Amino acid sequence: MCNVQTVATGPWYSSRPVGDDVTLFWEPYVHSFAQCNIWYVRGKDRDLLIDSGTGLLPLTPALSLLSGRPIIAVATHGHFDHIGALHEFSDRRAHVAEAADFATMPDALTYADWFRGLDQPVDALPVEGWEKSEYQIKPAPVHQTLQDGDVIDLGSRQLTVLHLPGHSPGSVGFFEEQTGMLFSGDALYDGQLLDDLATSNVAHYEATMHRLRDLPIRIGHGGHGASFDDRRKLTLVEEYLQGKRLQGCPIGP
Ligand SMILES: [Zn+2]
Ligand SMILES: [Zn+2]
Fold it and tell me: How far is the CA of 244 from the centre of ligand 2 (A)?
């Protein structure tokens, strides 16, 4: 039984434009640790959706206001807060290291069991009678696996896939060289980074941080938290590498 009994009164998804023909969506009623940044990138021929939130309510209706172009939906990795609505899309892509599990979405991939275990996973119910104990990620078999160096072509713009393992084995980022814009998922964001999950790997994370340190960016859009410029990126990377940041946080994915 969820402590909260009231159904959300406002829209489940909030959104705001962030420049570069990109819109940020998020779920304001979801527990702050599970509030993922959902990025919608508009192209000439196709649009790109980077992550899809917890899936507690359909995401597609919120996006359909934006464009009629085909949508490529990618997952930065397989944690529940990033892939909940992925099943709604007809072109789904994820890194080869995690993609096979998207067909069944086991807790070992998604950590949905962590969300079910929260006292109050939401501040308001998505629908009347919603029960956290029934929360599961719907299977979303991947149509195309991603590998480092792959290019996603939206017509007018191209984003290169960066394999950024450490937080999870199949974590990826997307870099648009033309604009210097990086979507870094949970590999890097302005907040507490998690490298002690069962599927995390600290050595891989350190290698990822070295790679990100050497990649000049204009702006970084992470999987959580506020966006960052190159200077802030360097601070976040250095703090992680120097062990200043709190590692091994037990609060969630
Ligand atoms: Zn996350
Ligand atoms: Zn994660």
Answer: 20
Average pLDDT rounded to a whole number, residues 178-199: 96
Q: Order of strands across the sheet with 22-26?
A: 14-19, 22-26, 38-42, 47-50, 71-74, 92-95, 144-146
What was the pLDDT predicted at 24?
Answer: 97
Res. 252: pLDDT tops 60: no
pTM over 0.90: yes
**What is the mean predicted confidence (pLDDT) over 242-246?**
70
Q: How far apart are CA 160 and CA 145, in angstroms?
A: 14
Give pLDDT tens digits for 99-153: 999 999 999 999 999 999 999 999 999 999 999 999 999 999 999 999 999 999 9
Cα 188 to ligand 1 centroid, rounded to whole Å: 10
Closest listed ligand to the CA of 222: 1
CB distance 139 to 105 below 8 Å: yes
Ligand 2 centre to CA of 82 (Å) is 7
Residue 101 in tokens = 């599990």
Distance (Å, rounded) from C-alpha 241 to C-alpha 98? 25
CATH: 3.60.15.10, 3.30.420.60, 3.40.50.720, 2.60.40.10. Which one for 14-241? 3.60.15.10
Domain ranges of the chain: 14-241
